[in-house]
Amino acid sequence: MKLTLIAPPEGEGGKPVVRMPVAPPAVEYLAGLTEKVAPNVEIKLIDANREKIAWDSLDSDLVGFTFFTLHAPWVYRNSDYLRKRGVKTIFGGIHTTVLPKEAMEHADAIVIGEAEGVWKEILTDAANNRLQRVYHGYRLPLDNLPHPKTDLLKPFYNIRSFFTSRGCPHHCIYCSVRNFFGDTVRHRPIDEVVNEVASSKQRFFINLDDNIWGTNINRSIELYKELSKNIRRKWWIGQADLVTVQHKRGEELLKWGRKAGLIMVTVGWESNNPITLNEFKATNKQGKNRKEAIKKIRDAGIDVSLFIMLGSINDTLDDFKRALDICDELNVAAFTSLLTPLPGTELYDLYDKYIFHDLAWDRYSFNRALFQHIDKDMTVENRERALLDLRKEIFTLPRIFKRIRHLPIKGFPMAHLSSLAYQCTYGRFIVKYSESLLSPQ
Ligand code: B12
After folding, report:
1. pTM, whole model, 2 decimals?
2. What is the pLDDT of residues 327-349, one digit of tens each?
3. Using a 6 Å CB cutoff, which residues line ligand 1?
4. What are the φ and ψ backbone dihedral angles of 144, each rounded to 5 degrees?
5. N or C: which end of the chain has fewer CB within 10 A?
6. Which domains does the chain carry?
């Protein structure tokens, strides 16, 4: 049987954006899972952010799409087209799981939740032409997981990924992860993670965990110790909370994290506005002294970038200015976005009465104002313009070089080089991209 797995283009409206350096994780992982549970299946992977697809001649018995909310319209359009040609399609992932009825209108089959427990059955059903409409995945322990198949996607990717756990202990209302992975955090056996990273040809990785150290500090320290013993000249980045580094073992965690190749973390700063932070239920993960925590991480030789979301009902235009001020005060860069009420989140329910429900899912790109604001100055235009201006200011060359100069020598050279590379490439991309979104089509 011929199986094709497709990762959608990253841009709004299904337009490919820049050459993303990261290989799309889900399709490579599912290819590894396929090889494990159905080794006779012929697998083809397509990264639609890099490759144009000839939908008329795509030769496959089953086509699988992995996607987030913003990719849904592009996936639905092309899956509808394939099905008219008699090609079977299957969907999985976060958006499909939170809106199964909508997804089923555009696919022959869908998987709700995690695929590991049902993938073998699905491939057997597909091979015998008895695909069911819905498969309910379930949360299995994370032992003996397959390694991603990294020899199918062409051409070269600078960065690949690994994950060591599923789930996050925090309750942020805008995040989709908790509903997807459940209230409990599951961990992969440390030796299996170390084996996967050590055996990979890749040098740079994203650790996909939603919280690279906040799920269990003792386990994180053990993991980093084993990684530092077994991997050489390999580096990785990840996302994390700030409360964990304020734990009494915080310094030890950072020391071993650095030795294990950790060179940058993106932390959920979320907002400078305490009312908004409370509204987001994102206060706990900050700990008592979050500025001190960021200094502690950088002093350990690990660069920091902030996640900041702007435009909540409690925000004003001043909050965009305050976001720039905190980046300057802490000498860090930031991923800034407009608050996006994703389906299936508590935030979506809370903002339901404000949301512009006529907007398509591909506007849920974190670059758009998607709801009516109660502050008269926080118009859609003003919010989107303020985001662009903020991104421009954050990534000016003088600011980028000032941040590199302030990075402690302990991280030299990898933390400095990766920080320069990330700030110059992502910075230039996100400004050009935001400008393109605001310029008349
Ligand atoms: C890696 C990642 C990224 C990477 C890579 C993206 C890519 N090309 O895939 C980068 C950093 C680029 C990224 C960017 C963004 N991301 Co992101 N990202 C993730 C992250 C951390 C891991 C996803 C992943 O690949 N996991 C590894 C794979 C193996 O696991 P999996 O996808 O869960 O797959 C399993 C099941 O879902 C299922 N499955 C999944 N797909 C399919 C397909 C089929 C056919 C089948 C059968 C099964 C199946 O089977 C798998 C095994 O069980 C998730 C958080 C999370 N924990 O899920 C957020 C997440 C997916 N991202 C999210 C968002 C919102 C974004 C951004 C919009 C954020 C922003 N501010 O801009 C951008 C958008 C980028 C863009 N333009 O597309 C949200 C999506 C929510 C939603 N409803 O859409 C998530 C859930 C984070 C969150 N906290 O809510 N992201």
Report:
1. 0.96
2. 999 999 999 999 999 999 999 99
3. 7, 10, 22, 24-26, 29-30, 64-66, 68-70, 90-95, 111, 114-116, 163, 175-177, 208, 210, 337, 342, 366
4. 50, 40
5. C
6. 2-136 (3.40.50.280), 159-438 (3.80.30.20)
